[in-house]
Amino acid sequence: MISFLPRASFEKPAALVLLTSGQAAAADFSSWPRDVAAVVSALLASKKFDGSKGEIFPLLAGKSLVVLLGLGKDEELTLPALRVLVRRALLSSFFKKMADIELIPHRDCGDVVNALIDAHVIGGYAWKKYITRKKDDTTVEHRHLHIVAQRQREYAQAVAVAQAVNFARDLVNENADVTTAEYLEKAVRALVRGKKLITLDVLGRKELVAGKFGLILAVNKGSSKEPRLVVARYNGGRKGEPYVALVGKGLTFDSGGLNLKPSGSMETMRSDMSGAAAVIGTLRAALELGIKKNIIFAFGAAENAIDADAYKPGDVIVGYSGKSVEVGNTDAEGRLVLADIMAYVIAKHKPARLVDIATLTGACVVGLGYDYAGLMSNNDVLAEALLASAAATDDRAWRLPLYPELKDMIKSKIADIKNISNQKGSAGSMTGAEFLHQFVGETPWAHLDIAGTAFVDGDNRMYFGHGATGYGVRLLTDFIGKN
Ligand code: BES
Ligand code: MN
Ligand code: ZN
Protein backbone atom coordinates (compact mmCIF):
# COMPACT_ATOMS: atom_id res chain seq x y z
CA MET A 1 0.00 0.00 0.00
CA ILE A 2 1.37 3.38 -0.99
CA SER A 3 -0.06 6.51 0.66
CA PHE A 4 0.25 9.74 -1.24
CA LEU A 5 0.99 12.65 1.07
CA PRO A 6 -0.47 16.11 0.51
CA ARG A 7 1.88 18.33 -1.48
CA ALA A 8 3.80 20.57 0.91
CA SER A 9 6.31 23.31 0.16
CA PHE A 10 8.43 23.25 3.33
CA GLU A 11 9.10 26.92 2.79
CA LYS A 12 8.32 27.88 6.39
CA PRO A 13 11.00 27.66 9.09
CA ALA A 14 9.14 24.78 10.72
CA ALA A 15 6.84 21.98 9.65
CA LEU A 16 4.71 19.45 11.47
CA VAL A 17 4.16 16.27 9.49
CA LEU A 18 1.39 13.88 10.55
CA LEU A 19 1.98 10.26 9.63
CA THR A 20 -0.03 7.16 10.45
CA SER A 21 1.96 3.99 11.02
CA GLY A 22 0.77 2.74 7.62
CA GLN A 23 2.17 5.85 5.95
CA ALA A 24 5.43 5.54 7.88
CA ALA A 25 5.80 2.04 6.42
CA ALA A 26 4.91 2.91 2.83
CA ALA A 27 4.65 6.55 1.89
CA ASP A 28 5.24 8.23 -1.43
CA PHE A 29 7.23 11.44 -1.08
CA SER A 30 7.31 12.26 -4.77
CA SER A 31 5.38 15.51 -4.29
CA TRP A 32 7.80 16.79 -1.65
CA PRO A 33 11.03 18.76 -2.15
CA ARG A 34 13.88 16.28 -2.69
CA ASP A 35 16.04 17.30 0.29
CA VAL A 36 13.15 16.93 2.77
CA ALA A 37 11.97 13.67 1.23
CA ALA A 38 15.50 12.26 1.47
CA VAL A 39 15.92 13.06 5.17
CA VAL A 40 12.47 11.79 6.10
CA SER A 41 12.74 8.56 4.12
CA ALA A 42 16.16 7.87 5.65
CA LEU A 43 14.64 8.21 9.10
CA LEU A 44 11.74 5.94 8.23
CA ALA A 45 14.10 3.36 6.74
CA SER A 46 16.09 3.39 9.99
CA LYS A 47 12.87 2.50 11.87
CA LYS A 48 13.70 5.07 14.58
CA PHE A 49 10.28 6.49 13.85
CA ASP A 50 7.46 4.21 12.83
CA GLY A 51 4.36 6.38 13.23
CA SER A 52 3.31 4.93 16.58
CA LYS A 53 0.60 6.92 18.29
CA GLY A 54 1.96 10.03 20.02
CA GLU A 55 5.56 9.58 18.84
CA ILE A 56 7.25 12.94 18.15
CA PHE A 57 10.53 13.12 16.20
CA PRO A 58 12.38 16.32 15.18
CA LEU A 59 14.63 16.47 12.11
CA LEU A 60 16.60 19.10 10.26
CA ALA A 61 15.94 19.17 6.53
CA GLY A 62 17.75 21.94 4.72
CA LYS A 63 17.03 25.08 6.71
CA SER A 64 13.75 23.92 8.15
CA LEU A 65 12.83 22.06 11.27
CA VAL A 66 10.61 19.13 10.41
CA VAL A 67 8.77 17.48 13.29
CA LEU A 68 7.09 14.15 12.64
CA LEU A 69 4.06 13.17 14.68
CA GLY A 70 2.96 9.55 14.76
CA LEU A 71 -0.80 8.95 14.66
CA GLY A 72 -0.82 5.18 15.10
CA LYS A 73 -2.94 2.88 12.96
CA ASP A 74 -5.17 4.67 10.49
CA GLU A 75 -8.16 2.46 11.30
CA GLU A 76 -7.85 3.17 15.04
CA LEU A 77 -7.38 6.93 14.76
CA THR A 78 -10.36 9.06 15.85
CA LEU A 79 -10.86 12.78 15.31
CA PRO A 80 -11.01 13.57 19.07
CA ALA A 81 -7.69 11.72 19.51
CA LEU A 82 -6.24 13.64 16.56
CA ARG A 83 -7.11 16.93 18.27
CA VAL A 84 -5.32 15.88 21.45
CA LEU A 85 -2.21 14.58 19.64
CA VAL A 86 -1.79 17.61 17.38
CA ARG A 87 -2.32 20.05 20.23
CA ARG A 88 0.36 18.31 22.26
CA ALA A 89 2.81 18.44 19.33
CA LEU A 90 2.12 22.13 18.64
CA LEU A 91 2.66 23.00 22.30
CA SER A 92 5.85 20.91 22.51
CA SER A 93 9.20 22.58 23.07
CA PHE A 94 10.28 21.96 19.46
CA PHE A 95 8.00 24.74 18.28
CA LYS A 96 8.66 27.09 21.16
CA LYS A 97 10.28 29.88 19.19
CA MET A 98 8.47 29.15 15.96
CA ALA A 99 5.98 31.72 14.71
CA ASP A 100 5.37 30.17 11.30
CA ILE A 101 4.55 26.51 10.98
CA GLU A 102 3.42 24.50 7.99
CA LEU A 103 1.22 21.57 8.95
CA ILE A 104 1.06 18.61 6.58
CA PRO A 105 -1.94 16.44 7.44
CA HIS A 106 -2.08 12.71 6.84
CA ARG A 107 -5.27 13.27 4.84
CA ASP A 108 -6.69 16.32 3.14
CA CYS A 109 -10.37 16.13 4.00
CA GLY A 110 -12.86 18.47 5.66
CA ASP A 111 -13.23 16.81 9.03
CA VAL A 112 -9.48 16.34 9.47
CA VAL A 113 -8.83 19.99 8.66
CA ASN A 114 -11.56 20.96 11.09
CA ALA A 115 -9.96 18.89 13.86
CA LEU A 116 -6.54 20.42 13.15
CA ILE A 117 -7.94 23.92 13.42
CA ASP A 118 -9.57 23.00 16.73
CA ALA A 119 -6.23 21.63 17.96
CA HIS A 120 -4.51 24.88 17.05
CA VAL A 121 -7.09 27.58 17.83
CA ILE A 122 -9.02 25.96 20.70
CA GLY A 123 -6.05 23.91 21.93
CA GLY A 124 -3.75 26.93 21.88
CA TYR A 125 -6.03 29.19 23.92
CA ALA A 126 -5.05 30.34 27.37
CA TRP A 127 -6.52 33.10 29.56
CA LYS A 128 -3.56 35.31 30.44
CA LYS A 129 -5.07 38.75 30.85
CA TYR A 130 -4.04 39.18 34.47
CA ILE A 131 -0.60 37.61 34.26
CA THR A 132 1.92 40.46 34.46
CA ARG A 133 5.19 38.56 34.01
CA LYS A 134 6.78 39.24 30.66
CA LYS A 135 5.06 37.32 27.95
CA ASP A 136 6.93 35.04 25.60
CA ASP A 137 6.53 36.73 22.22
CA THR A 138 5.98 33.42 20.47
CA THR A 139 2.83 32.63 22.40
CA VAL A 140 0.48 30.46 20.48
CA GLU A 141 -1.93 33.28 19.61
CA HIS A 142 0.72 35.02 17.55
CA ARG A 143 1.58 31.99 15.53
CA HIS A 144 0.67 31.34 11.95
CA LEU A 145 -0.28 27.82 11.17
CA HIS A 146 -0.45 27.02 7.46
CA ILE A 147 -2.45 23.87 7.01
CA VAL A 148 -1.80 22.20 3.69
CA ALA A 149 -5.38 21.65 2.57
CA GLN A 150 -7.50 22.08 -0.53
CA ARG A 151 -10.78 22.99 1.05
CA GLN A 152 -10.34 26.69 1.70
CA ARG A 153 -14.03 27.34 2.42
CA GLU A 154 -14.30 24.71 5.16
CA TYR A 155 -10.96 25.93 6.45
CA ALA A 156 -12.20 29.51 6.88
CA GLN A 157 -15.46 28.35 8.45
CA ALA A 158 -13.71 26.13 10.97
CA VAL A 159 -11.46 29.03 11.97
CA ALA A 160 -14.47 31.31 12.45
CA VAL A 161 -16.22 28.76 14.69
CA ALA A 162 -13.08 28.04 16.74
CA GLN A 163 -12.55 31.76 17.26
CA ALA A 164 -16.17 32.11 18.39
CA VAL A 165 -15.45 29.33 20.92
CA ASN A 166 -12.52 31.35 22.29
CA PHE A 167 -14.64 34.49 22.35
CA ALA A 168 -17.14 32.69 24.60
CA ARG A 169 -14.24 31.50 26.77
CA ASP A 170 -13.03 35.06 27.31
CA LEU A 171 -16.50 36.07 28.52
CA VAL A 172 -16.49 33.22 31.04
CA ASN A 173 -12.91 33.59 32.24
CA GLU A 174 -13.17 37.31 32.96
CA ASN A 175 -13.97 38.35 36.55
CA ALA A 176 -17.62 38.16 37.53
CA ASP A 177 -17.66 41.83 38.46
CA VAL A 178 -16.57 42.71 34.93
CA THR A 179 -18.88 40.41 32.96
CA THR A 180 -22.06 41.70 34.55
CA ALA A 181 -25.48 41.46 32.91
CA GLU A 182 -24.95 44.93 31.48
CA TYR A 183 -21.56 43.86 30.09
CA LEU A 184 -23.11 40.84 28.36
CA GLU A 185 -25.76 43.10 26.84
CA LYS A 186 -23.00 45.37 25.52
CA ALA A 187 -21.09 42.39 24.13
CA VAL A 188 -24.16 41.43 22.12
CA ARG A 189 -24.73 45.03 20.99
CA ALA A 190 -21.15 45.16 19.73
CA LEU A 191 -21.62 41.92 17.78
CA VAL A 192 -24.84 42.95 16.08
CA ARG A 193 -24.04 46.63 15.43
CA GLY A 194 -24.89 47.53 11.85
CA LYS A 195 -26.31 44.07 11.13
CA LYS A 196 -29.73 44.53 9.52
CA LEU A 197 -30.41 40.83 9.93
CA ILE A 198 -30.91 41.25 13.66
CA THR A 199 -33.56 42.77 15.89
CA LEU A 200 -32.48 43.18 19.47
CA ASP A 201 -34.80 43.34 22.49
CA VAL A 202 -33.25 44.08 25.86
CA LEU A 203 -35.23 44.16 29.09
CA GLY A 204 -33.65 45.82 32.13
CA ARG A 205 -34.98 45.89 35.68
CA LYS A 206 -37.77 48.35 34.87
CA GLU A 207 -39.09 46.32 31.95
CA LEU A 208 -38.73 43.06 33.89
CA VAL A 209 -40.81 44.51 36.73
CA ALA A 210 -43.43 45.80 34.29
CA GLY A 211 -43.53 42.40 32.54
CA LYS A 212 -43.84 40.51 35.86
CA PHE A 213 -40.64 38.48 35.46
CA GLY A 214 -40.81 37.57 39.15
CA LEU A 215 -38.36 34.64 39.00
CA ILE A 216 -35.34 36.35 37.47
CA LEU A 217 -36.03 39.39 39.65
CA ALA A 218 -36.12 37.22 42.80
CA VAL A 219 -32.79 35.60 41.93
CA ASN A 220 -31.18 38.98 41.33
CA LYS A 221 -32.70 40.63 44.43
CA GLY A 222 -29.60 40.39 46.61
CA SER A 223 -27.35 41.89 43.92
CA SER A 224 -26.25 45.50 43.53
CA LYS A 225 -26.34 45.06 39.76
CA GLU A 226 -29.25 45.06 37.33
CA PRO A 227 -30.43 41.89 35.63
CA ARG A 228 -31.02 41.64 31.88
CA LEU A 229 -33.08 39.62 29.48
CA VAL A 230 -31.52 39.78 26.03
CA VAL A 231 -33.30 38.47 22.93
CA ALA A 232 -31.62 38.78 19.52
CA ARG A 233 -33.80 37.75 16.60
CA TYR A 234 -31.63 36.66 13.70
CA ASN A 235 -33.57 36.66 10.46
CA GLY A 236 -31.26 34.81 8.10
CA GLY A 237 -34.01 32.53 6.77
CA ARG A 238 -37.13 33.09 4.72
CA LYS A 239 -39.73 35.47 6.01
CA GLY A 240 -42.32 33.60 8.08
CA GLU A 241 -40.09 30.57 8.55
CA PRO A 242 -40.38 29.58 12.22
CA TYR A 243 -37.58 30.28 14.69
CA VAL A 244 -35.27 27.91 16.48
CA ALA A 245 -34.66 29.44 19.91
CA LEU A 246 -31.42 29.08 21.87
CA VAL A 247 -31.71 30.13 25.51
CA GLY A 248 -28.74 30.42 27.86
CA LYS A 249 -28.38 30.54 31.64
CA GLY A 250 -26.43 33.68 32.46
CA LEU A 251 -25.68 33.70 36.18
CA THR A 252 -22.80 36.16 36.24
CA PHE A 253 -21.96 34.77 39.66
CA ASP A 254 -23.65 32.08 41.74
CA SER A 255 -22.86 32.39 45.43
CA GLY A 256 -25.78 30.07 46.18
CA GLY A 257 -27.71 32.93 47.76
CA LEU A 258 -28.80 32.52 51.41
CA ASN A 259 -28.31 28.76 50.90
CA LEU A 260 -24.70 29.83 50.51
CA LYS A 261 -22.26 27.58 48.72
CA PRO A 262 -19.37 26.34 50.86
CA SER A 263 -15.72 27.15 50.12
CA GLY A 264 -14.53 24.84 47.39
CA SER A 265 -17.82 25.06 45.51
CA MET A 266 -17.94 28.80 44.84
CA GLU A 267 -14.51 29.59 43.39
CA THR A 268 -15.43 28.78 39.78
CA MET A 269 -18.95 30.21 39.85
CA ARG A 270 -18.10 33.07 37.51
CA SER A 271 -18.56 30.26 34.98
CA ASP A 272 -22.28 30.07 35.77
CA MET A 273 -22.97 32.23 32.72
CA SER A 274 -21.40 29.68 30.38
CA GLY A 275 -24.80 28.90 28.83
CA ALA A 276 -25.27 32.57 27.94
CA ALA A 277 -21.67 32.72 26.68
CA ALA A 278 -22.36 29.70 24.43
CA VAL A 279 -25.42 31.46 22.99
CA ILE A 280 -23.43 34.67 22.39
CA GLY A 281 -20.56 32.72 20.83
CA THR A 282 -23.00 30.90 18.56
CA LEU A 283 -24.51 34.23 17.53
CA ARG A 284 -21.05 35.41 16.55
CA ALA A 285 -20.41 32.25 14.55
CA ALA A 286 -23.82 32.47 12.83
CA LEU A 287 -23.08 36.03 11.74
CA GLU A 288 -19.65 35.11 10.42
CA LEU A 289 -20.86 32.04 8.57
CA GLY A 290 -23.97 33.83 7.33
CA ILE A 291 -26.26 31.00 8.38
CA LYS A 292 -29.51 31.23 6.42
CA LYS A 293 -31.99 30.37 9.17
CA ASN A 294 -34.31 32.20 11.54
CA ILE A 295 -32.89 31.91 15.02
CA ILE A 296 -33.57 33.45 18.40
CA PHE A 297 -30.51 33.94 20.57
CA ALA A 298 -31.64 34.65 24.12
CA PHE A 299 -30.29 34.65 27.63
CA GLY A 300 -31.19 35.80 31.09
CA ALA A 301 -28.39 37.42 33.06
CA ALA A 302 -28.53 37.88 36.83
CA GLU A 303 -26.34 37.54 39.88
CA ASN A 304 -27.18 35.20 42.75
CA ALA A 305 -25.74 37.34 45.54
CA ILE A 306 -26.75 38.10 49.13
CA ASP A 307 -27.66 41.19 51.04
CA ALA A 308 -30.57 41.99 53.36
CA ASP A 309 -32.89 41.98 50.34
CA ALA A 310 -31.90 38.59 48.99
CA TYR A 311 -34.71 36.16 48.12
CA LYS A 312 -35.27 33.61 50.83
CA PRO A 313 -35.62 29.86 51.18
CA GLY A 314 -39.32 29.10 51.70
CA ASP A 315 -40.50 32.09 49.67
CA VAL A 316 -43.24 31.56 47.11
CA ILE A 317 -42.62 33.57 43.97
CA VAL A 318 -44.54 34.05 40.73
CA GLY A 319 -42.94 34.76 37.38
CA TYR A 320 -43.84 35.51 33.78
CA SER A 321 -45.80 32.28 33.26
CA GLY A 322 -48.09 32.94 36.23
CA LYS A 323 -47.15 29.63 37.93
CA SER A 324 -46.22 29.95 41.60
CA VAL A 325 -42.89 28.49 42.70
CA GLU A 326 -41.74 27.51 46.17
CA VAL A 327 -38.08 28.33 46.67
CA GLY A 328 -36.84 25.17 48.37
CA ASN A 329 -33.26 26.29 47.89
CA THR A 330 -31.89 29.63 46.70
CA ASP A 331 -29.01 27.77 45.04
CA ALA A 332 -31.37 26.19 42.51
CA GLU A 333 -31.55 29.61 40.83
CA GLY A 334 -30.69 28.79 37.23
CA ARG A 335 -33.96 27.00 36.60
CA LEU A 336 -35.85 30.03 37.92
CA VAL A 337 -34.11 32.41 35.53
CA LEU A 338 -34.55 29.99 32.62
CA ALA A 339 -38.23 29.39 33.40
CA ASP A 340 -39.00 33.10 33.06
CA ILE A 341 -37.04 33.51 29.84
CA MET A 342 -38.27 30.35 28.14
CA ALA A 343 -41.89 31.13 28.99
CA TYR A 344 -41.39 34.62 27.53
CA VAL A 345 -39.63 33.50 24.34
CA ILE A 346 -42.32 30.87 23.73
CA ALA A 347 -45.23 33.24 24.39
CA LYS A 348 -43.76 36.05 22.31
CA HIS A 349 -42.09 34.28 19.38
CA LYS A 350 -43.63 30.78 19.27
CA PRO A 351 -40.40 29.04 18.22
CA ALA A 352 -40.78 25.67 16.47
CA ARG A 353 -37.99 24.31 18.68
CA LEU A 354 -36.21 25.55 21.78
CA VAL A 355 -32.85 24.47 23.14
CA ASP A 356 -31.66 25.73 26.50
CA ILE A 357 -28.07 25.47 27.65
CA ALA A 358 -27.15 25.84 31.30
CA THR A 359 -24.64 25.02 34.03
CA LEU A 360 -27.62 23.68 35.93
CA THR A 361 -26.70 20.89 38.33
CA GLY A 362 -23.73 19.49 40.21
CA ALA A 363 -25.55 16.17 39.85
CA CYS A 364 -24.74 16.22 36.13
CA VAL A 365 -21.04 16.30 36.99
CA VAL A 366 -21.52 13.36 39.36
CA GLY A 367 -23.40 11.34 36.76
CA LEU A 368 -21.62 12.16 33.50
CA GLY A 369 -18.33 13.73 34.54
CA TYR A 370 -16.56 16.54 32.74
CA ASP A 371 -16.44 15.36 29.14
CA TYR A 372 -20.15 14.79 28.42
CA ALA A 373 -22.99 17.25 28.79
CA GLY A 374 -26.40 15.94 29.85
CA LEU A 375 -29.14 16.15 27.24
CA MET A 376 -32.80 15.93 28.23
CA SER A 377 -35.72 16.47 25.89
CA ASN A 378 -39.44 16.05 25.31
CA ASN A 379 -38.83 15.35 21.62
CA ASP A 380 -36.85 12.45 20.14
CA VAL A 381 -36.25 14.05 16.74
CA LEU A 382 -34.77 17.16 18.33
CA ALA A 383 -32.69 15.09 20.77
CA GLU A 384 -31.28 12.96 17.93
CA ALA A 385 -30.38 16.05 15.90
CA LEU A 386 -28.50 17.51 18.87
CA LEU A 387 -26.69 14.23 19.53
CA ALA A 388 -25.64 14.13 15.88
CA SER A 389 -24.21 17.67 16.13
CA ALA A 390 -22.52 16.73 19.41
CA ALA A 391 -20.79 13.80 17.74
CA ALA A 392 -19.84 15.83 14.66
CA THR A 393 -18.24 18.65 16.66
CA ASP A 394 -16.83 16.79 19.67
CA ASP A 395 -18.95 18.91 22.03
CA ARG A 396 -20.03 15.64 23.55
CA ALA A 397 -23.48 14.96 24.99
CA TRP A 398 -25.33 12.00 26.46
CA ARG A 399 -29.08 11.72 26.80
CA LEU A 400 -30.74 11.25 30.18
CA PRO A 401 -34.41 10.31 30.51
CA LEU A 402 -37.41 12.46 31.33
CA TYR A 403 -40.52 10.62 32.54
CA PRO A 404 -43.84 11.48 34.24
CA GLU A 405 -42.84 10.42 37.78
CA LEU A 406 -40.24 13.21 37.96
CA LYS A 407 -43.06 15.73 38.23
CA ASP A 408 -44.15 14.19 41.54
CA MET A 409 -40.70 14.85 42.94
CA ILE A 410 -40.99 18.61 42.51
CA LYS A 411 -44.45 18.96 44.08
CA SER A 412 -44.98 21.71 46.63
CA LYS A 413 -47.50 21.91 49.47
CA ILE A 414 -47.76 25.69 49.22
CA ALA A 415 -47.18 26.47 45.52
CA ASP A 416 -47.74 25.04 42.03
CA ILE A 417 -44.22 23.69 41.84
CA LYS A 418 -40.97 23.63 43.83
CA ASN A 419 -37.48 24.46 42.59
CA ILE A 420 -35.83 21.45 44.24
CA SER A 421 -36.68 17.78 44.49
CA ASN A 422 -38.35 16.26 47.54
CA GLN A 423 -36.02 13.29 47.12
CA LYS A 424 -32.69 14.92 47.85
CA GLY A 425 -29.65 13.25 46.37
CA SER A 426 -31.36 11.43 43.54
CA ALA A 427 -32.01 12.28 39.89
CA GLY A 428 -30.86 15.88 40.42
CA SER A 429 -30.23 16.65 36.74
CA MET A 430 -33.53 15.18 35.63
CA THR A 431 -35.64 16.92 38.28
CA GLY A 432 -33.91 20.17 37.28
CA ALA A 433 -34.85 19.47 33.67
CA GLU A 434 -38.39 18.47 34.66
CA PHE A 435 -38.78 21.84 36.37
CA LEU A 436 -37.87 23.55 33.08
CA HIS A 437 -40.17 21.16 31.20
CA GLN A 438 -43.12 22.60 33.15
CA PHE A 439 -42.55 25.97 31.48
CA VAL A 440 -42.28 24.97 27.81
CA GLY A 441 -45.79 23.61 27.18
CA GLU A 442 -45.93 21.58 23.96
CA THR A 443 -42.92 23.23 22.33
CA PRO A 444 -40.31 20.70 21.20
CA TRP A 445 -37.56 21.43 23.67
CA ALA A 446 -34.16 20.15 24.70
CA HIS A 447 -32.01 21.01 27.67
CA LEU A 448 -28.23 20.78 27.75
CA ASP A 449 -26.76 20.60 31.26
CA ILE A 450 -23.17 21.79 30.88
CA ALA A 451 -22.21 22.03 34.58
CA GLY A 452 -19.34 19.59 33.95
CA THR A 453 -18.25 20.47 30.42
CA ALA A 454 -18.15 24.27 30.62
CA PHE A 455 -15.06 24.71 32.74
CA VAL A 456 -11.74 23.02 33.44
CA ASP A 457 -10.54 23.57 36.99
CA GLY A 458 -6.90 22.53 37.09
CA ASP A 459 -5.20 20.23 34.62
CA ASN A 460 -5.75 19.96 30.90
CA ARG A 461 -8.78 18.02 29.79
CA MET A 462 -9.12 16.71 26.26
CA TYR A 463 -7.56 19.60 24.33
CA PHE A 464 -8.54 22.36 26.77
CA GLY A 465 -6.29 24.12 29.24
CA HIS A 466 -7.43 25.52 32.59
CA GLY A 467 -10.59 27.65 32.53
CA ALA A 468 -13.60 27.95 30.26
CA THR A 469 -14.02 25.50 27.36
CA GLY A 470 -16.58 27.39 25.27
CA TYR A 471 -18.68 24.23 25.29
CA GLY A 472 -21.78 24.48 23.14
CA VAL A 473 -20.60 26.96 20.51
CA ARG A 474 -19.50 24.24 18.10
CA LEU A 475 -22.49 22.01 18.85
CA LEU A 476 -25.11 24.76 18.53
CA THR A 477 -23.51 26.29 15.43
CA ASP A 478 -23.56 22.91 13.72
CA PHE A 479 -27.14 22.31 14.88
CA ILE A 480 -28.59 25.60 13.65
CA GLY A 481 -26.76 25.26 10.34
CA LYS A 482 -28.14 21.79 9.66
CA ASN A 483 -31.65 21.98 11.13
N1 BES B 1 -24.59 26.62 39.13
C1 BES B 1 -24.94 25.51 39.95
C2 BES B 1 -24.59 24.17 39.34
C3 BES B 1 -23.13 23.87 39.12
C4 BES B 1 -22.43 23.08 40.03
C5 BES B 1 -22.47 24.30 37.99
C6 BES B 1 -21.10 22.78 39.81
C7 BES B 1 -21.14 24.00 37.77
C8 BES B 1 -20.45 23.23 38.69
C9 BES B 1 -26.43 25.52 40.22
O1 BES B 1 -27.03 26.78 40.29
C10 BES B 1 -26.64 24.89 41.55
O2 BES B 1 -26.18 25.43 42.51
N2 BES B 1 -27.32 23.76 41.57
C11 BES B 1 -27.59 23.06 42.77
C12 BES B 1 -29.03 22.60 42.73
C13 BES B 1 -29.54 22.04 44.02
C14 BES B 1 -29.63 23.12 45.07
C15 BES B 1 -30.88 21.43 43.77
C16 BES B 1 -26.63 21.89 42.87
O3 BES B 1 -26.30 21.29 41.85
O4 BES B 1 -26.18 21.60 43.98
MN1 MN C 1 -26.85 27.61 42.22
ZN1 ZN D 1 -26.09 28.26 39.22
Describe this structure in words.
This protein has about 475 residues and is an alpha/beta fold. The protein folds into 2 domains: about 1-150, Leucine Aminopeptidase, subunit E, domain 1 (3-Layer(aba) Sandwich); about 160-480, Zn peptidases (Aminopeptidase), CATH 3.40.630.10. Helix content is about 35%, strand content about 20%. The chain contains 15 helices and 20 strands. The chain has helices at about 20-25, 35-45, 80-90, 110-120, 150-175, 180-190, 205-210, 215-220, 275-290, 335-350, 360-370, 380-395, 405-410, 430-435, 475-480; strands spanning about 5, 15-20, 25-30, 55-60, 65-70, 100-105, 145, 200-205, 230-235, 245-255, 295-305, 315-320, 325, 355-360, 375, 395-400, 415-420, 445-450, 455, 465-470. An 8-stranded mixed β-sheet has the order 8-9-11-10-14-18-15-16, with helices on both faces. β6 (about 100-105), α4 (about 110-120) and β7 (about 145) form a beta-alpha-beta unit. α8 (about 215-220) packs antiparallel against α10. The mean pLDDT is about 95. The protein binds ligand BES, manganese (II) ion and zinc ion. Zinc ion binds next to β10.
Keywords:
about 20% strand, binds manganese (II) ion, about 475 residues, 5-stranded mixed sheet, binds ligand BES, Aminopeptidase, Leucine Aminopeptidase, subunit E, domain 1, alpha/beta, binds zinc ion, 8-stranded mixed sheet
